[in-house]
Amino acid sequence: MTGRIYIDLFTSLDGVAQAPGGPEEDPTGGFPYGGWQAPFPDERIGAAIMQGIEELDALLLGRRTYDIFAGYWPQHTDGPDGAIGRKFDAVPKYVASRGTPSLDWQGSSQLGADVAAEVRALRDRHESVHVIGSVDFAQTLLKEQLFDVLTLWVYPVVLGQGKKVFPDGAAPGNLTLLEPAQSGPLGVVQLRYGPVRTGTVGD
């Protein structure tokens, strides 16, 4: 088996991916716009997101996102979010953290010190590993090209501050568009990229 590592991020037009889901998600740096995704419910984009969730067989998360998910999804396995909650509850969850977090959610384990080697090893155990949110961790994976598919859902909003997918000082590199862009009626655009492993911009 050779699985794939997917990075899934919601981002503004100016590349900010911090706290799309709610005010308490990630207030680091005094970020005041948590929950900026909410005004753009989009059924077409929502269906594309759900397809990815249905296909995943493991989650790979940073510590902050893991804590948010663990505090929410195990209590939401019924009702409107039931399908997502049941999927997240059932699959293995791998957590990247420099500390010693309490991983009480069933199926959770911490990656070892050599994160690059551990992430590569996940391809031998799973077909579809998804990194959802986890901006800081995603930046590390992007820098090291430890991913196979980067999906960006770009929303028609400019935030002007916050953590960006590609912050200042990000490693130069090329990406290739894997499929035509999709867009919904509210102006949300799905872009799906793969890495170009040349290491030289413009090659």
Automatic annotation (TrEMBL):
Any Pfam family the entry gives: RibD_C
Superkingdom, taxonomy of origin: Bacteria
InterPro entries, per database record: DHFR-like_dom_sf (IPR024072), RibDG_C (IPR002734)
Occurrences of domain Bacterial bifunctional deaminase-reductase C-terminal (ranges): 6-179
Protein name listed in UniProt: Dihydrofolate reductase family protein
